[in-house]
Automatic annotation (TrEMBL):
<feature type="transmembrane region" description="Helical">
    <location>
        <begin position="334"/>
        <end position="354"/>
    </location>
</feature>
<feature type="transmembrane region" description="Helical">
    <location>
        <begin position="95"/>
        <end position="118"/>
    </location>
</feature>
<feature type="transmembrane region" description="Helical">
    <location>
        <begin position="211"/>
        <end position="229"/>
    </location>
</feature>
<dbReference type="Pfam" id="PF01740">
    <property type="entry name" value="STAS"/>
</dbReference>
<dbReference type="InterPro" id="IPR036513">
    <property type="entry name" value="STAS_dom_sf"/>
</dbReference>
<keyword id="KW-0813">Transport</keyword>
<keyword id="KW-1133">Transmembrane helix</keyword>
<comment type="similarity">
    <text>Belongs to the SLC26A/SulP transporter (TC 2.A.53) family.</text>
</comment>
<keyword id="KW-1003">Cell membrane</keyword>
<feature type="transmembrane region" description="Helical">
    <location>
        <begin position="409"/>
        <end position="427"/>
    </location>
</feature>
<dbReference type="InterPro" id="IPR018045">
    <property type="entry name" value="S04_transporter_CS"/>
</dbReference>
<feature type="transmembrane region" description="Helical">
    <location>
        <begin position="53"/>
        <end position="75"/>
    </location>
</feature>
<keyword id="KW-0325">Glycoprotein</keyword>
<protein>
    <recommendedName>
        <fullName>Sulfate transporter</fullName>
    </recommendedName>
</protein>
<keyword id="KW-0597">Phosphoprotein</keyword>
<feature type="domain" description="STAS">
    <location>
        <begin position="524"/>
        <end position="684"/>
    </location>
</feature>
<dbReference type="InterPro" id="IPR011547">
    <property type="entry name" value="SLC26A/SulP_dom"/>
</dbReference>
Length: 688
């Protein structure tokens, strides 16, 4: 028997006090380390290799900036906000992540999935406040309205909503909701970083995230169809938005704007063709083609000089002012309204950012700090919320573009922010005549990656059926119910799958591999030899309260012996035998002699004298598990069958000791516990 090392008892109180003293102490060196850890840019920027890195960073920054501008304007449709706010978001997120992020490559900024989640909350609150969700409804003036907004065609409302007493129109209230939501989400992320709750991301498996992204992509696609064909339908809210929207689309299909339909068809063909060619010849291209920017410029020129809005009533983006709106503190009362909605937003934003950061850190051989990433993305939400921006996250598509164009550090993010700043200060009004259907085309084509996941379903099913089921359930719930519910359903369903797997795991009898000391599943492998008088049982899961009954049923079924039934049958025969002996009849109820009856009491189906339980797959035991093993030890002992445990890990052994499985003084432990199946089998063979 191997001897265990003595465990040194840890005084947890002293450990906690020591950690508190260390964390609460303040020295100049510690303060310096804290600041440099909180702002990683202070560590890597002084070591920046300018000649080696600058060209790649400038090139990737310019390309991402050129991509960001049309995407920011387009994603404003998803968020239900004006394009200027999307540009603010892209600018501030890049600057803050440059200062606080630990990943060299991820592109943090506006992201379609996050924009959708923000837009759903904004639309709901606008409806509750009594606003019309029609995109072409005239905007209202008031607190927070844009500096350069036109004073024509506007209506002012005196509202007392969520404690705000002001003339606040639809646009003002919408950005108020978005900034409050963003601020609360950022606070959640910072609190998660302080309390080191990054482990929450572990419960979002790859199947859940993929299903969630695909389901949300279907929702995004559905929301953009009305812009593609130029029909006026209300923006659906609540559960089942996808189905309701499609019903409204087909009801109003006759009102489609021919100009928008033709424009959309041309833009989609151009964008998809350019994307496919770019993917095919990306090894020959030094940087991706700025297709979106070219399409936007050409479409804007055609719309402006062709007067598509005036002649064909094609919906356009409208005035995009230049400059920055004065900062404003998000309304506290609005935060209370969106506090619950901010939680899934915070989790999804953090998970996507950290998963992408880890993926590219692994690819390029450096490390990130997940906790600092949580702080970085948290402050990418908190600080910009004061500047009329909404929630951000890392985006896979833009990150792939960054790496493919030579990005080395987050200097590229600063260059991208400068491109966005140029648009904010000077170029934004030029996009006045840009058709909304063109923006919808850009959004839909950007969903290609997520929608292509449907092609991977057969391969995914071939690899793992349960993960495929998780993907389908999450995707369906995200698309057909709502994104937040879909995420929750995916997490709960994936956990249930794990629980079910442990509740009904695989159980098997083992046979010996010929001429070896190894044993394997009798049903899975051929040419295994059975061990005479010994049954070897393997249970491939922890033994705990939820699978106790399944453990016993599997054991009784595979060994073809239920010790409780056999014991009851023996008692019945013994009782009948005693009754016949009292009457003086030396023959039993079966017409047999006493000696013959004794032989018959030993059932023919019991063809083993020892049961070896392979515990190598049992990772832990709870109280019910220990009691279950004690129960089978007692029941089989009544039938003169010994129960031997093999391959137990130290945790299981400790649980058995504490549960009294080996007796008070552990005297029988050497005869009950073995460190290999073969040792247990040899011991069983030597028993009389």
């Amino acid at each position: 028997l191997m001897e265990r090392k003595p465990h040194i008892k840890i005084n947890r109180k002293e450990v906690i006090l020591a950690k508190l003293r260390k964390s609460c102490s303040c020295t100049p060196q510690k303060l310096k380390n804290f600041i440099m850890d909180f702002f990683p840019v202070l560590r890597w920027l002084p070591k920046y290799r300018c000649k080696e890195y600058i060209w790649g960073d400038v090139m990737s920054g310019l390309v991402i900036g050129i991509i960001l501008v049309p995407q920011a304007i387009a994603y404003s449709l998803l968020a239900g906000l004006k394009p200027i706010y999307s540009l603010y978001t892209s600018f501030f997120a890049n600057i803050i992540y440059f200062l606080m992020g630990t990943s060299r490559h991820v592109s943090v900024g506006i992201f379609s999935l996050i924009s959708l989640m923000v837009g759903q909350v904004v639309d709901r609150e606008l409806l509750l406040a009594g606003f019309d969700l029609n995109d072409d409804a005239p905007p209202a003036l008031g607190d927070g309205s844009l500096q350069n907004d036109s004073l024509s065609n506007t209506t002012a409302f005196n509202l007392t909503i969520a404690g705000i007493n002001a003339e606040c129109g639809k646009e003002c209230y919408a950005i108020g909701i978005a900034t409050a939501l963003t601020f609360v989400a950022g606070v959640y992320q910072v609190l998660m970083g302080i309390f080191r709750l990054g482990f929450v991301s572990m419960y979002l498996s790859e199947s859940v995230l993929d299903g969630f992204a695909t389901g949300a992509s279907l929702t995004i696609l559905t929301a953009q169809v009305k812009y593609l064909i130029g029909i006026k339908i209300p923006r659906s809210q609540g559960h089942g938005m996808l189905v309701i929207t499609w019903i409204n689309i087909f009801r109003n299909i006759s009102q489609a704007n021919l100009c928008d339909v033709i424009t959309s068809a041309i833009c989609i063909v151009v964008l998809v063709t350019a994307k496919e060619l770019g993917d095919r010849y990306k090894h020959k291209l030094k940087f991706p083609l700025p297709t979106e920017l070219v399409v936007i410029v050409v479409a804007t020129l055609v719309s402006h000089y062709g007067k598509l809005n005036e002649l064909y009533a094609s919906s356009v983006s409208g005035a995009i002012p230049t400059g920055f709106i004065p900062p404003k503190v998000p309304e506290f009362n609005l935060m209370l309204r969106v506090a619950v909605d901010a939680l899934p937003l915070a989790i999804v934003s953090f998970v996507f950012t950290v998963s992408l950061s880890e993926m590219f850190a692994k690819k390029y051989a450096y490390t990130i700090r997940a906790n600092q990433e949580m702080f970085a993305v948290g402050f990418c939400n908190i600080i910009p919320s004061f500047f009329h921006s909404f929630a951000t996250s890392a985006a896979l598509a833009k990150t792939l573009v960054k790496t493919s164009t030579g990005c080395q550090t987050q200097i590229s993010g600063v260059i991208s922010a400068m491109v966005v700043l140029l648009v904010l200060l000077f170029l934004a009004p030029l996009f006045y005549s840009l058709q909304k259907c063109v923006l919808a085309c850009i959004i839909i084509v950007s969903l290609r990656g997520a929608l292509r996941k449907f092609r991977d379903v057969p391969a995914r099913y071939h690899v793992n059926k349960v993960d495929t089921l998780v993907w389908v359930v999450t995707m369906s719930a995200s698309a057909l119910v709502s994104t937040e519910v879909g995420l929750l359903v995916g997490i709960v369903f994936s956990m249930l799958c794990i629980i079910v797997r442990t509740q009904r795991p695989r159980a098997a009898l083992l046979g010996q591999i010929q001429d070896t000391s190894f044993y394997e599943d009798d049903l899975e492998y051929e040419n295994l030899s059975t061990v005479p008088k010994v049954k070897i049982f393997r249970f491939e899961a922890p033994l705990y309260y939820a699978n106790r009954n399944y453990f016993l049923k599997s054991l009784y079924r595979l060994t073809n012996l239920d010790p409780n039934l056999e014991a009851a049958r023996r008692k019945k025969y013994e009782k009948k035998e005693k009754q016949h002996l009292k009457k003086g009849n030396h023959r039993t109820a079966n017409g047999l002699g006493i000696g013959e009856t004794t032989l018959q009491l030993v059932p023919k189906q019991i063809d083993f004298q020892a049961l070896v339980v392979d515990c190598s797959s049992i990772s832990f035991l709870d109280t019910t598990g220990v009691n279950t093993l004690k129960e089978i030890l007692k029941d089989y002992k009544n039938l003169n069958i010994s129960v031997l445990l093999a391959c137990c890990n130290p945790s299981v052994i400790d649980s058995l000791k504490r549960g009294g499985y080996f007796g008070r003084d552990f005297g029988c432990m050497q005869e009950m516990l073995f460190y290999s199946i073969h040792n247990a089998v040899l011991f069983a063979k030597d028993q009389k």
